């Protein structure tokens, strides 16, 4: 078979490890593997490269994505999707593996519905994909955030400050939740657990009166202006407060061990699924077992929330 692979949406550490596993597993089974450059853009511009085992050497530990990525909004339109199918079929490609998040899966589902064999692998730092406990890149971003919280606590304690740390995640609070637990945050504010400002300020005031030297608040992005919240805390709680927006640093860096293993397992499994004729499905990990679920279900479900959302109420 000829199998193509692309990465799409926000890059995530471990995408390269997944590409490597696709290439090496595919070649081991006697297939030809092609990389599509810059996500769906490369499908539209007929930008493919053959990938050999040597081409992915050294990629296991490399951050970013060696194939490039893009967000291609026009890929929602059927005539645009048809261009992609033409380019794939003209090259004799039999199947496509899409590594990305929710938005990327919509494109993969569309190609499957147009009759092209397509499989998804969840690659996004947000961990917001239904049908999998973890997405590739989540653990690396989490470690980056925890490292930042530890550093911010040092300076907050020294100055008796309240530090607000805004993290990525879009509509998913998993990065904030997991990082907040690992970093011992006093408050974790996520889309699933939104701000209660009166309670926040009164608790901070109490902590300040008790003589505590620091307070840490971890917030999922896109909810409110963290700098304004810091200003309000400074006026009302007794703590002086500063906000830090971690931004794109969370997407970079060498993948941690969990992401290298997850990406290797999922990349290899995706090739085996393709060989079995599976299409319109995506790979997931559930209770440490690899599974596939229909893309049509995944894109229509918000991710189920785990027990950590309850844990945080008890141990903060
Ligand atoms: O989906 C990954 C992510 O990093 C989100 O956490 C964030 O909201 C978004 O991508 C940023 O996207 P862009 O790279 O298009 O600015």
What does this protein look like?
It contains 11 helices and 11 strands. It has 316 residues and is an alpha/beta fold. It folds into 2 domains: 2-137 and 255-301, Rossmann fold; 138-251, Rossmann fold (3-Layer(aba) Sandwich), CATH 3.40.50. A 7-stranded mixed sheet has the order 3-2-1-4-5-10-11, with helices on both faces. Helix 1 (15-28) runs parallel beside helix 9 (257-275) and helix 5 packs across helix 6. The chain is elongated, with a radius of gyration of 21 Å. The model has no long low-confidence stretch (mean pLDDT 96). The structure holds 6-O-phosphono-beta-D-fructofuranose.
Q: Structural class from helices and strands?
A: alpha/beta
The Rg value, from CA coordinates, equals 21 Å
Structural domain tally: 2
CATH topology of the largest domain: Rossmann fold
**What coarse outline follows from CA principal-axis ratios?**
elongated
> Architecture of the largest domain in CATH?
3-Layer(aba) Sandwich
Main sheet: strands, sense, barrel: 7 strands, mixed
List the bound ligands: 6-O-phosphono-beta-D-fructofuranose
Distance between the termini: 53 Å
Q: What's the rounded overall pLDDT mean? A: 96
Helix content: 40-55%
Number of strands: 11
Strand content: 15-25%
Along the chain, the helix and strand elements come as EHEHEHEHEHEHEHEHEHEEHH
**The CATH top-level class label of the largest domain:** Alpha Beta
Number of discrete helical segments: 11
Low-confidence stretches: none
- Tell me the strand order in the biggest sheet: 3-2-1-4-5-10-11
Pfam family, one: PFK
Catalytic activity: beta-D-fructose 6-phosphate + ATP = beta-D-fructose 1,6-bisphosphate + ADP + H(+)
Subunit structure: Homotetramer.
Binding site for ADP: 20-24, 153, 184-186
């Amino acid at each position: 078979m000829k199998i193509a692979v692309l990465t799409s949406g926000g890059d995530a550490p471990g995408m390269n490890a997944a590409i490597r596993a696709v290439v090496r597993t595919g070649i081991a089974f006697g297939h030809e593997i092609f990389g599509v450059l810059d996500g769906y853009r490369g499908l539209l511009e007929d930008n493919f490269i053959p990938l050999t085992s040597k081409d992915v050497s050294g990629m296991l530990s490399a951050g970013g994505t060696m194939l490039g990525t893009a967000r291609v909004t026009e890929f929602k339109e059927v005539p645009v999707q048809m261009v992609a199918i033409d380019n794939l079929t003209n090259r004799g490609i039999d199947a496509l593996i899409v590594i990305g998040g929710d938005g990327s899966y919509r494109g993969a589902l569309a190609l499957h519905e147009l009759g092209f064999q397509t499989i998804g692998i969840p690659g996004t730092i947000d961990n917001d994909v239904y049908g999998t406990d973890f997405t590739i890149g989540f653990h690396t971003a989490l470690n980056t955030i925890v490292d930042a919280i530890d550093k911010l606590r040092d300076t907050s304690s020294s100055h008796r400050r309240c530090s607000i740390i805004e993290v990525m995640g879009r509509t998913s609070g998993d990065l904030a939740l997991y990082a907040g637990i690992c970093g011992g945050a006093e408050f974790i504010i996520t889309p699933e657990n939104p701000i209660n400002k009166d309670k926040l300020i009164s608790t901070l005031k109490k902590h300040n009166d008790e003589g505590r030297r620091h307070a840490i608040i971890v917030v999922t992005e896109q909810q409110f202006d963290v700098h304004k919240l810091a200003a309000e805390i400074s006026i009302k709680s007794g703590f002086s407060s500063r906000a830090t927006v971690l931004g794109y640093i969370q997407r970079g860096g060498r993948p941690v061990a969990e992401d290298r293993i997850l990406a290797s397992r999922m990349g290899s499994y995706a090739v085996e699924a393709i060989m079995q004729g599976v299409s319109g499905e995506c790979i997931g990990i559930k209770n440490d077992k690899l599974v596939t679920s229909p893309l049509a279900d995944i894109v229509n479900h918000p991710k189920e929330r785990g027990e950590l959302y309850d844990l945080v109420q008890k141990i903060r």
